[in-house]
Amino acid sequence: MSSALKFSKEIDAKIYGMARDYFQQGKRSGTERLSELRTMISGSLEDGTPLSIVVKILPNPINPRLSSGWRIVAEDKVWEIPAEELEKSRLL
Q1: Which residues contact 51 (CB under 8 A, 6 or more apart)?
Q2: 82 pLDDT exceeds 70?
Q3: How many CB atoms lie within 10 A of CB 11?
Q4: What would the 3-class secondary structure string for the chain be?
Q5: Which of 4, 22, 56, 76 is deepest in the core (most CB within 10 A)?
Q6: Could you read off the pLDDT of 16-46 as tens digits, one per residue?
Q7: Residue 38 CA to chain centroid, in angstroms?
């Protein structure tokens, strides 16, 4: 896939939602360290082209000096989500 792919806000929202849900599940279960989650997300590119991609949610520190922060990888795009973002309610 080309680096020119533009994921839609729909896909971004699904990815953030999935990471937030996974974070909250781990928090409720008291798990100290979550393993990598691989899942399929479907949506569309900004131009409307349908797309299904495998997303890897890596619940590891973004920076080794930090104790929190997650990285999400899909194709050639990387999202870095601070823990404070994962704490927010989905209703916000």
Answers
A1: 7, 11, 42, 43, 44, 45
A2: yes
A3: 21
A4: CCCCCCECHHHHHHHHHHHHHHHHHHHHHCCCCCCCEEEEEEEEECCCCEEEEEEEEECCCCCCCCCCCEEEEECCEEEEECHHHHHCCCCC
A5: 22
A6: 888 888 888 888 888 777 888 999 999 888 8
A7: 10
User: Tokens representing 43?
Assistant: 């949506």
Q: What angle do CA 4, 6, 7 make, to 5 degrees?
A: 140
Structure tokens at 16: 């953030």
Query: What tokens appear for 55 in the block?
Result: 């997303």
Cα distance between residue 4 and residue 83, in whole Å? 28
What are residue 20's phi and psi, to 5 degrees?
A: -65, -45
